[in-house]
Amino acid sequence: ARAVAGIALAALLLAWAGAHFLGSRSSLPEGTLYKVQKLSLGVTIPERGILVNKQSVPVEVQTAGEIVEISRSGAPVKKGDIIVRIDNRTAQDNLKEMQRDEQKARIEKQILEAEYEQTYTSESNRLALLKEQVDAAAFEEATVRAGLTPEDRRLLVIQKETAHLNLADALDELDQQKRLFQKNFVSRIMVDRFERKVASARAAVEEMDLTIRLKEEGAPAERLLELKQRVDNLRMQLERGARAMERALELVRARIRVNQANALRQAQWKKQKEDAVSRANIPSPADGIMSVRYFK
Question: Is the pTM of this model over 0.85?
């Protein structure tokens, strides 16, 4: 605006000077030389305006809250100076809530991990017990099917001889007690006691004889079928137990995966809240003059 006004005024002056020269030319003698000098003409015109930097850097508020402090417009600022302060208590409250949720997630993870270990231990012990029962039943079936081995036969003979020796000793003792009773050296109670001892020894001999005969004849088909069914049932229980253990562990693992996914989301949300809280104080991005504009 100043340049345009100056040019217009200079044009008017030059036009007036030309007209004045031409108007007075007739009164000047012919052949007279005049020297033209270059003069500068300055005109100052006061105006209102806004001083704008050639390079402006806008400042962006990246958190929600109430502006509690802002540098005045026109104030010189250095890079890093705090020019805007924001009261973002809502973001701070949200961050505290996220921190509490994060703590709850850690506690829940510890509980789930302990539950997994407890489930694994209890189910493993139960399966180990079933495995022992299967092995014992299978061994019994194999032993019965195999019949008497030479070692088994030798042991049975020894047990049979021992039973007969015990019976012979019991008979000798009973005979001795009867003679003492006839001489009134002992009471009838002592005789009865040794008679029971003889009866017990005779029963042991009969039981041993029956055991040897049955083992030599071999187990009947019904017995073999019973043993096989018992082994099969125990093996099915073991298989069902293994599947049940895997299902129980998978349920806990699924809950752990959900917990981990929630913890990851909470960590991301927490990072966002921390960033929002950290943006409460806005620094100047560069050296310059502060310019504040209000928009309606």
Answer: no
